[in-house]
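User: Please fill in residues for this 753-position structure.
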């Protein structure tokens, strides 16, 4: 028997025993029944399922008692109920939920287990709200430091984003809800997101941008996918034959449903023939026009049947909750709140601790908390997804809740609030009546507010200065114009540090900011994220030293924005006179007082940096960074012992077992995230200098030495070969680099593959 036929027979035996079911194939369990239903449905009934019924639902099959599908945003908490045909609040009192840390905060935990628990919590709360599909996770790569949705997304690294995405999706789906992974694909900028054409070479697309989607589909069996607003290589994502039919369905074996981003469907024929199942929202494309197209023979009815089948597979996999069994009380569950706390506590990232101001010393009795971000709530706001949280502990509140006896805390906001267009929309009177709101993002500090803050700072044993962005600055619908700190926060930092050098800076933001000035005057810096409803308590526990910080950056903080790849190569922002669409570019118009109607004109985003995204760029090009990918300090030191592998040479189907020990040399238990990168030594193919290929989060007691093993399947080291159109392994020598951050490699070992 030839080798191939042995494999074929084996595959058949395994399939016959029912053991070869992939996570996607599980969706097809009811196809027999579903096909019978489809055979009895009229064309009109079928097409009724292919577009929105309300803003957040699509039709079932009433004649067969099949319920509508109910969707919920996503991605960091189940969004409050909206009115049937819009996003405005429906004014319910039973729709509050758990506000989980946002995407970049979850990613800073580098923990698949936590992503799983997070997904489980989301899934369970969705069920309590009667929702079938969560519009999340959002797994796009953080390509630009200014990206408006960096806070929703996970990472600049595809492996980290993939691992977290898989955990999240498995958690959601194990809780009985479907996950809709978004935004497929290459939705890496908000600028003109509704029209921009992303031009990206196939190798980069496969190795970087599609990776997290591929993993959530193949490994986690994601039941739904949301095509993005933008175009990829000339075609809108919602009608992109290559992305939807060729790659997603044929190659990855996706069996679930695709639902366009809201307002992201663009034609009847394109959407019908090239892979979209559900138009959200409206029925102008996949509604009466589709019925006509079928009737005149332009779209085969079998195409409609395929869509209905994919929708029904999800409907059959997810139990519909009757109206009288959901929304009886708040969706938020104690377990979810505990997960939100755990994620927050493990995401907080200590950027530097010169002079050892943290953890806060016992002799600190007077703390001045300075900066409006200490009280700003981040559950909702801006344009993007949000949650009506059951509660939210602000950083100031957390510091109050957890303060040791005898500690006094004072607070001054120091800078105004900035609401961008949200203030503008409320009219000129609003700003007049709200002197605490600044109309300008870069307005100079208010002298009285600054004086008040300086007086408190001078009189304190320790100053904790909260700065950073807010949800009007980082938001869906527009990217930031730069990564500068807003509202004169740098000068405020300098003045505070001048009156009291015992100053800790805590940045509250979803994405990176330019820290050049702040870093010079503040000796201790913490990245505090947008950290969910327990964020303030978690932060306080870290600052007071009840737990050690253990977050690691999921993206690079560049020194200057201009250093980052898309800027260095002049690929972004795309130069055009357009105003964008789907909310694009509204800030500038608001501040200048002009309110132009956004309109859609196409621009092109060339991803000419190829796979050199984030640290891959900085490493390969030797460009210094402010804080590197994977960076994050602890209150203890970790020593890394020599690293070894189980073999010296590996074949394509092998797994490299990388073993080393980590010793906690400090006086308290702490978590360390050890990272494993691969550097190709004698490559002929072009590679980034190094790439993350494995990591592990470990809790290590004071003085304990832990032996850990990280596994790297050799197949994960393959590249996309554009000539054969397939993954290919480049044989040769590789260095396996083990460390505490991408710029803090402690040990290495070489192997042959
Ligand atoms: C966003 C999606 C979201 C959808 C529904 C769109 O504007 O891009 O992420 O799920 O709205 O709220």
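Assistant: Residues filled in for all 753 positions:
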């Amino acid at each position: 028997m030839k080798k191939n036929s042995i494999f074929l027979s084996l595959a058949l035996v395994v399939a016959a025993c029912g053991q070869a079911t992939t996570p996607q194939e599980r969706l097809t369990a009811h196809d027999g029944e579903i096909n019978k239903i489809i055979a009895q449905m009229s064309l009109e009934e079928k097409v009724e399922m292919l577009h929105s019924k309300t803003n957040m639902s699509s039709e079932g099959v009433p004649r067969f008692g099949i319920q509508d599908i109910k969707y919920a945003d996503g991605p960091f908490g189940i969004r409050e109920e909206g009115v049937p045909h819009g996003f405005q609040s429906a004014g319910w009192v039973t729709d509050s939920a758990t506000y989980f840390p946002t995407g970049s905060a979850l990613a800073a935990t580098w923990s698949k287990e936590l992503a799983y628990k997070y997904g489980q919590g989301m899934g369970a709360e969705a069920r309590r709200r009667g929702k079938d599909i969560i519009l999340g996770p959002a797994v796009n790569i953080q390509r630009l430091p200014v990206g408006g949705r960096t806070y929703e997304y996970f990472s600049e690294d595809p492996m980290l984003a993939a691992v977290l995405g898989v955990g999240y999706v498995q958690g959601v789906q194990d809780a009985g809800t479907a996950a809709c992974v978004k935004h497929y694909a290459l939705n890496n900028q908000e600028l003109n997101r509704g029209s921009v054409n992303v031009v990206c070479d196939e190798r980069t697309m496969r190795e970087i941008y599609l990776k997290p989607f591929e993993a959530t589909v193949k490994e986690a069996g994601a039941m739904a996918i949301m095509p993005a607003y933008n175009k990829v290589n000339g075609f809108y994502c919602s009608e992109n034959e290559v992305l939807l039919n060729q790659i997603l369905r044929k190659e990855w074996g996706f069996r679930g449903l695709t639902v366009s981003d809201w307002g992201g469907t663009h034609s009847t024929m394109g959407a019908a023939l090239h892979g979209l199942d559900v138009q959200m929202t409206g029925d102008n494309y996949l509604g009466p026009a589709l019925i006509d197209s079928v009737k005149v023979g332009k779209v085969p009815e079998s195409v409609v049947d395929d869509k209905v089948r994919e929708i029904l597979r999800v409907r059959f996999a997810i139990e519909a909750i009757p109206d009288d069994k959901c929304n009886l009380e708040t969706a938020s569950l104690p377990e979810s709140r505990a997960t939100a706390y755990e994620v927050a506590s493990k995401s907080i990232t200590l950027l530097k601790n010169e002079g050892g101001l943290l953890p806060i010393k016992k002799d600190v009795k007077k703390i001045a908390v300075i900066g409006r971000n200490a009280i700003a709530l981040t559950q909702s706001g801006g344009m993007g997804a949000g949650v009506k949280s059951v509660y939210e502990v602000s950083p100031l509140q957390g510091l109050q809740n957890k303060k040791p006896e005898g500690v006094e805390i004072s607070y001054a906001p120091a800078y105004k609030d900035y609401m961008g267009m949200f203030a503008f929309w409320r009219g000129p009177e609003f700003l007049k009546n709200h002197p605490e709101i600044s109309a300008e993002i870069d307005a100079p500090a208010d002298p009285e507010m600054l004086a008040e803050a300086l007086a408190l700072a001078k009189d304190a044993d320790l100053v904790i200065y909260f700065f950073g962005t807010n949800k009007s600055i980082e938001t869906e619908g527009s990217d930031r114009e730069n990564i500068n700190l807003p509202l004169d926060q740098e000068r405020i930092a300098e003045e505070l540090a001048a009156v009291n050098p015992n100053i800790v800076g805590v940045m509250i933001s979803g994405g990176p900011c330019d820290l050049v000035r702040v870093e010079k005057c503040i000796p201790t810096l913490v990245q505090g994220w947008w950290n969910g409803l327990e964020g303030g308590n978690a932060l306080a526990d870290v600052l007071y030293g009840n737990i050690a910080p253990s977050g690691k950056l999921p993206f690079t903080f560049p020194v200057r924005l201009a250093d980052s790849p898309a800027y260095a190569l002049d690929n972004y922002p795309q130069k055009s006179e357009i105003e964008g669409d789907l909310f694009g570019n509204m800030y500038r118009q608001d501040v200048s007082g002009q309110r132009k109607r956004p309109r859609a004109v196409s621009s092109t985003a060339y991803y000419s940096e190829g796979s050199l995204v984030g640290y891959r760029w900085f490493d390969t090009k030797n460009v210094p960074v402010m804080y590197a990918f994977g960076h994050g300090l602890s209150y203890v030191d970790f020593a890394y012992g020599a690293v070894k592998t189980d073999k010296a040479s590996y074949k394509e189907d092998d797994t490299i077992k990388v073993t080393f020990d980590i010793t906690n040399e400090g006086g308290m238990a702490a978590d360390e995230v050890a990272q494993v990168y691969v550097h190709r030594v004698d490559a002929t193919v072009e590679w980034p200098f190094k790439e993350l290929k494995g990591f592990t989060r470990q809790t290590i007691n004071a003085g304990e030495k832990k032996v850990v093993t990280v596994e790297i399947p050799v197949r994960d080291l393959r590249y996309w070969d554009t000539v054969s159109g397939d993954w290919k392994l480049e044989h040769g020598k590789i260095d396996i680099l083990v460390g505490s951050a991408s710029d803090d490699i402690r040990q290495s070992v070489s192997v042959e593959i």
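For context: Confidence is low (pLDDT under 50) at residues 1-18, 585-600.
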